[in-house]
Amino acid sequence: MGHEARVLAPCDGPPPATWVTPLGNSIPTAANGSVAPVAPDPSCALRTIRAIRDEAFDVLHLHEPMAPSVTVTALIVDLAPAVGTFHAAGATAPYRFLTSGARYLADRLDARIAVSKDAKELVNHYLPAQYEVLFNGVEVDRYRHAEPFPASGPTIFFCGRHEERKGLSVLLDAMALLPLDITCWVASDGPETAALRATYGADPRIEWLGRVSDDDKIARLKGATVFCAPSLHGESFGVVLIEAMAAGTPVVASDLAGYQNVATDGDTALLVPPGDVTSLADALGRVLSDTALAERLRRAGDRRADDFSMATLAERYVEIYRYVIATHRTNRPSAGQSASQRWRRRMMRFMATWRVRVQKVFRRGGRERS
């Protein structure tokens, strides 16, 4: 749309693109049944401040603004209008420990977005305010016009982190109830990969792909007979379901609130109770064997994917950016702003003290090694 954008984020290794500003290494942190790479260290905070100051951005778009990482730093320094997008949903422990300081920081946001009604319900409970729901977007045309990966027969595709909440073991158990001519492509990896391969590795119908590129993922989505998302919990929005629909692949998924934001059972997908191996196998078997059902799901899914076009989402966000630039500081409660400033000063002093302590530790360690 003609606007220059940069991504500021922790980056383990060289940045993946010229428009990415790396802020330092991340620290894997348990969150919502998964692992979130955050960077709460002082060096990352200083890089964040320097990057925001040097670039002089018109607006900052902060994803998960209350995460203890670069987004909190951006709110503390408050150098540009800020839009916050909240993704988490369900029982997320960190919100239960939010302090009054976090609420003061939230008052620095000029606009608040949630990616689903479930995400809105969670954050609004702890940080009450006005939130607009904007679902995540997908580059629909990229999926529609991709070349499919060739499949030798009926094929199920799974793509997700190998951890308990993604429910991969449920799908692999369901494979035992499906015909022998069906192949299951399993992409990505995670903390359960070794255990899953030890348990199910003897089944030649399961192909372990490991991590795949975006292009490979799209080709597999396009080439599969059905896409399966057997997650057990913790899904606020089913973006991967939209990707499969845009690729023209029927979807079988768990009947979770986050997935219901995207799919309707019997219309755009088949939804089954989470963790129910028999129901999952039955739904997969129906799609694989009933070509009329598969075609009906495919057509409805293709129409549904248009509702989540990235272009449409970008247009709405640009409207929000223009609004917050025009109204920055005029739409904040003065009492909250004053409290935020006091909290900001305390945080800056704390960060400076932390930095000095870390430097002392490294110097002492160097002397001990020498």
Summarize the structure.
By secondary structure, this protein is α/β, with parallel strands linked by helices.
Structure in words:
- With 370 residues, the protein is of the alpha/beta class.
- The chain has 15 helices and 14 strands.
- A six-stranded parallel beta sheet has the order 11-10-9-12-13-14, with helices on both faces. Strands 5-6-7-8 form a four-stranded parallel beta sheet.
- Strand 7, helix 5 and strand 8 form a beta-alpha-beta unit.
Q: Please describe the biggest sheet, giving its number of strands, its sense, and whether it closes into a barrel.
A: 6 strands, parallel
Q: What's the CATH architecture name of the largest domain?
A: 3-Layer(aba) Sandwich
- Overall structural domain count: 2
Mean pLDDT: 87
- Helix share bin: 40-55%
Q: Beta-sheet strand percentage?
A: 15-25%
Based on secondary structure, the structural category is alpha/beta
Q: Which of globular, elongated, flat, extended, rod-shaped describes the shape?
A: globular
Number of helices: 15
CATH topology (level 3) name of the largest domain: Rossmann fold
CATH class of the largest domain: Alpha Beta
Q: Largest sheet, order of strands side by side?
A: 11-10-9-12-13-14
User: What is the N-to-C succession of helices and strands?
Assistant: EEEEHEHEHHEHEHEHEHEHEHEHEHHHH
Q: How much is the radius of gyration in Å?
A: 23 Å
